[in-house]
Specification:
The complex is a heterodimer of chains A (258) and B (428). Chain A has 258 residues and is mainly α. Chain A is built from 13 helices and no strands. With 428 residues, chain B is of the alpha/beta class. In chain B, the strands form four sheets. Chain B has a six-stranded mixed sheet with strand order 5-6-7-3-8-9, sandwiched between helices. In chain B, strands 10, 12, 14, 15, 17 and 18 form a six-stranded mixed sheet that branches. In chain B, strands 2-1-4 form a three-stranded antiparallel sheet. Classes of the chains: A mainly alpha (258), B alpha/beta (428).
Chain lengths: 258, 428
């Protein structure tokens, strides 16, 4: 409780770190902030061309099937991979001044979240332009699933960033691990086409219900079923609790270790 | 926690693992366990002290005594191994200035980022913005990117943010070295204002003078525990005396080392042809040089009663006793002394020629005494340069920082020297 109050007191620090990151990202490029939209748009165009002309997938409107899961996946994986070093990278600050250390992973994950939300604006635009259509009742559940995924990403990022301080390899191992994880998650294909013997892996994968919910909302235009939501919330809560506990235990030794 | 206390530190210990060869990758952790050898170094050994609300306290002690670690524990950058630390109110630290500054952003934007790191909300920053900019004296440059600033401007901006945070407890580590003399004076004034406003202040500094000016109390930390605490005027002389003795100890070892070295190298030097001795430099380093016809072999500082000391009270007599050894006759010798304050200010210098002494030649080993009468230099740390030169100004043995002199005083006046004075009040 005390930690929450302190993080709230440092909210301005979180805002300014996010702002610094977002502003700094495309600094010096001609189109600047516009790239935030152009990047996903061009990606979407490439996927559309590839999967409707070169490699035909078994799903109708595969580009959308892929994209509505890929955007949340990218949010999740960049949060964790990039976030692993978010404390180590700020070691000068951590060594010299006090602030609630939680601020660093929170700022990093929130920054990725902002990027994802901006990408979803592109998705909305494409859905409207192509006339694919949308189900307002389903979209109503979008904030819930975004929130759950945010907790999941935050929990894992806190865990990864704290451990990376003590074991620098984590950062690199995570790059490989996340790639494997992507193929064990319903990003490029649904669980239904996965061989029976691999399904248990998908069942314990916390990202499975999350990605399924995104796909329900946008691709199938239906309300995610309550079982999926409950499982997603439970996974999110468990991962967050583990992340927070490990972080709280390790944070006292950050400065000594760097 | 007792009411009235802002800080309570009780029986705090802290050790650090000192790795002899540190590696933080899996390979190093798993394969080379034995290589990750480390030893524990206990920095704090059960330190306890408390600071009352509104009090200003200085932490003093030699390098490595644990005072900076104590400050880091107070800021919660480090956590104690055992014991407890309690602090009441918002803590701000002037340990790292300019944290989070982004070179490409303007001074104004950086104020927001930096102040946010101190835990200020946007609204709080808004209300302080004008004060911060005014204090930094950077009005004209505030919208330029910080990378265009000089280092002095950078530090001024950083200090302005830190000092305008309005903390309940302010922790300071050697900061009053920011900007030029004017800005330093201003910072000092601001600190006094902050203190008058009821803020609790803890300062770590090597400048005892600064601590005396701001703090009511000094805490001398020695080997991880409090050795003395009390009024700066009472603690500092004891501390300086201790440091003086220690330095004497080191100086003696050093002298012994030099004597040893000399014994090994002096003999061949002596036999060099005598026509060019002026050019034969027997030892040329940044601290000591000369042609080596004579050498200062011992320096002692004595008080009125001819007692050896390193710490003297201002306005007493100090005898600088200098023993020398002659290797070759020095014609028309000149003996000189220079007094420098620890920050390099040249306070006084003279020699036998300037004092119009009789010319004399140094032929045999001997001793010179320079009696500094009623020394009016203000309390602080000074170094002495001592030199023997021959008449044409050729250094025979010039020894920079040959001795250290500490002065203390029971008065609180300030400045470089104590100017004799009296007050007259004339009533009309």
């Amino acid at each position: 409780m005390k930690i929450l109050r302190e993080i709230y007191a440092y909210r301005q620090m979180i805002f300014s770190l996010i702002k610094r990151d977002l502003r700094g990202r495309y600094k010096g490029s001609f189109l600047g902030f516009l790239w935030t939209f152009l990047n996903p748009l061009f990606q979407l165009i490439v996927y559309t061309i590839v999967f409707s002309n070169i490699m035909r997938a078994g799903y109708e409107d595969y580009y959308l099937f892929l994209f509505v899961a890929l955007i949340p996946w990218i949010f999740f994986s960049t949060s964790v991979i990039g976030g692993a070093s978010c404390i180590w990278a700020q070691k000068d600050m951590v060594n010299k001044i006090y602030f609630p250390r939680e601020v660093l992973p929170i700022a990093h994950v929130t920054c990725q979240l902002v990027n994802m939300l901006l990408s979803f604006l592109v998705v909305f635009a494409v859905i409207l332009v192509t006339g694919y259509g949308i189900n307002p009742a389903a979209v109503f559940y979008l904030p819930v699933i975004i929130f759950v995924e945010y907790l999941l990403a935050l929990g894992l990022t806190m865990l990864a960033s704290a451990v990376t301080v003590f074991l620098r390899d984590i950062e690199y191992i995570l790059g490989i691990l996340m790639m494997a994880w992507q193929f064990l998650s319903p990003v490029m294909y649904g669980v239904d086409i996965v061989p029976e013997e691999v399904r248990p892996v998908f069942a314990v994968n916390p990202m499975t219900p999350v990605l399924a919910a995104y796909r329900d909302i946008f691709y199938y235009k239906k309300i995610p079923d309550i079982g999926t939501l409950v499982r997603a919330v439970m996974f999110g809560a468990v991962v967050l609790i583990i992340g927070v506990l490990v972080f709280e235990y390790l944070k006292k030794h950050f400065s000594e270790e760097m | 926690m007792q009411t009235g206390n802002a800080i309570e530190v009780s029986h705090v210990t802290k050790s650090f693992k000192v790795f002899l060869d540190k590696g933080n990758t899996i390979k190093e952790r798993a394969l080379f366990r034995s290589r990750r050898r480390y030893e524990y170094r206990q920095v704090l050994r059960g330190i306890s002290f408390r600071v009352e609300r509104g009090e200003a306290v200085g932490l003093i002690g030699q390098n490595g005594c644990g005072k900076s670690t104590t400050l880091k524990l107070l800021t919660k950058i480090l956590y104690p191994d055992s014991g407890a630390i309690e602090i009441r109110g918002r803590v701000s630290s002037l340990i790292e200035l300019g944290a989070g500054f982004h070179p490409d952003l303007s001074g104004r934007e950086n104020i927001y980022i930096n102040a946010a790191i101190f835990g200020l909300s946007k609204k709080e920053i808004d209300t302080r913005l004008d004060d911060i900019i005014a204090f930094s004296e950077l009005e004209e440059y505030i919208d330029n990117p910080v990378r265009t600033y000089s280092s002095g401007m950078y530090m001024r901006l950083a200090f302005s943010v830190a000092i305008n945070v309005d903390a309940d407890v302010l922790l300071i580590d050697e900061i009053l070295a920011v900007g030029d003399a004017n800005f330093q004076a201003k910072c000092f004034q601001k600190l006094k204002e902050i203190k008058a406003g009821g803020t609790t202040i803890v300062i770590v500094s090597h400048s005892l003078g600064q601590i005396e000016q701001i703090c009511e109390r000094s805490i001398w930390i020695h080997e991880g525990a409090v050795k003395e605490a009390g009024k700066p005027r009472e603690v500092h002389p004891v501390y300086l005396d201790y440091m003086g003795k220690k330095r004497e100890c080191i100086a003696q070892k050093e002298a012994a080392r030099i004597a040893e070295k000399e014994k090994n190298s002096a003999n061949p030097k002596k036999q060099e042809p005598s026509g060019e001795q002026n050019d034969t430099v027997f030892e040329h380093n940044s601290k000591r040089w000369g042609n080596g016809k004579a050498r200062i072999i011992r320096i002692e500082l004595l008080d009125k009663n001819k007692k050896k000391k390193a710490l003297f009270e201002t306005e007493t007599d100090i005898t600088v006793k200098l023993d020398y050894k002659i290797y070759e006759t020095v014609l028309d010798a000149v003996v000189g002394i220079g007094i420098f304050r620890s920050d390099g200010v040249y306070c006084y210098g003279t020699n036998t020629r300037l004092d119009k002494m009789e010319k004399y030649d140094l032929e045999k080993d001997g001793t010179v005494e320079i009696i500094l009468k009623n020394i009016v230099l203000m309390p602080g740390s000074y170094t002495l340069d001592l030199a023997i030169e021959s008449e044409t100004g050729i250094p025979v043995d010039y020894w920079r920082e040959a001795a250290v002199l500490e002065l203390y005083s029971t008065k609180d006046d300030v400045g470089l020297v104590r100017v004799a004075h009296e007050w007259n009040f004339i009533l009309k």
